[in-house]
Design a protein that fits this description.
single chain, 294 residues, DNA polymerase, domain 1, hpI Integrase, Chain A, three-stranded antiparallel sheet, 12 helices, 3 strands, 52% helix, 5% strand, DNA-binding, DNA recombination, DNA integration, DNA binding
Length: 294
């Protein structure tokens, strides 16, 4: 079918255009991306295709990508939102050109990112705030979700995909969880005694292939449900706009505050680059030159 698709594109039917785009996008989304990322990126690419009138992706030029970039800026979207959409488009076009060779040219290379203020420190909760969220959550499952997010530092997509076979005892008191994380990487994360005991109590008669955190319909929780659980817990504690990732940030910052080595935190969080983990040291410095001034 693809041999019929040329850069001129004058003879293409809309069905063929749609099939070409759909197949490329499906291949790209299936390439080591989490369920949450696939959903968000799918919406971002759908927005781009609507902007270019569902043009086949092998006919998109530098001009269309730049015009799309300018249209995002004109809508006064947050820089992080613009950068995510641009990253998704750039990733798709790079994959299509360099990985599967369905695109003749990588027209995404010219797409730049918006400068973003580093507000990581604002998204790190205090220990008092975290424990207040725990204390005010009356639902047993939801309380354990909050505690698991904080004490393991797992991503929301990782929490949602857990099954009981991913959890293994480590000692008489502690356990560990095997996580298939971002970028298709597998890591093992220690589960502390207090969380491990609560997880075992939650399990009941569940089988090894059953989800650890069950939705009201009996299947895996969706990431949007976990977002709502965390947001509601934050609101009860008087904290606005809390997301699951804030608990991950807090896990990293608090553990290093208490002396955890950077490489241990890096391994627990699944960061490929130690510089990513090192951001938490800069976000919450333990010392500063101003203390030494008279």
């Amino acid at each position: 079918m693809y041999s019929q698709i040329s850069n001129s594109g004058s003879q293409l039917s809309k069905v063929t255009q749609s099939e070409f785009n759909a197949q490329l996008i499906q291949l790209w989304l299936g390439h080591n991306k989490s369920k949450h990322t696939r959903r968000v990126y799918s919406q971002d690419i759908k927005e781009f295709l609507q902007f270019v009138g569902d043009l086949p992706l092998n006919q998109v030029t530098y001009l269309e990508t730049q015009e799309f970039r300018e249209s995002l800026a004109s809508r006064k979207l947050a820089p992080r939102t613009i950068n995510r959409k641009i990253h998704a488009l750039r990733s798709l076009l790079t994959f299509g050109c360099e990985k599967v060779r369905m695109l003749p040219t990588n027209v995404g290379v010219v797409l730049g990112s918006e400068p973003v203020k580093n507000d990581l420190a604002q998204r790190i909760l205090s220990e008092e705030q975290v424990f207040k969220m725990f204390a005010l959550e009356e639902n047993q499952r939801n309380a354990l979700i909050l505690r698991t997010l904080y004490y393991t530092g797992l991503r929301v997509s990782e929490i949602c995909s857990l099954t009981w076979k991913d959890l293994q005892p480590r000692s008489e008191y502690e356990g560990q969880v095997t996580v298939f994380g971002k970028g298709g990487k597998t890591r093992v994360v220690l589960v502390s005694e207090k969380v491990w005991r609560s997880l075992l109590e939650l399990r009941g008669e569940a089988g090894k292939d059953d989800p650890v955190f069950v939705s009201n319909k009996g299947g895996h929780l969706d990431s949007s449900q976990v977002f709502r659980i965390v947001r509601a817990a934050g609101n009860r504690a008087g904290i606005e706009n809390v997301s699951p990732h804030w608990l991950r940030h807090s896990h990293a910052s608090h553990s290093m505050d208490r002396g955890a080595p950077l490489h241990v935190v890096q391994a627990s969080l699944g960061h490929s680059n130690p510089a990513t983990t090192g951001r938490y040291l800069h976000a919450r410095p333990g010392d500063g030159s101003g203390r030494y001034l008279g």
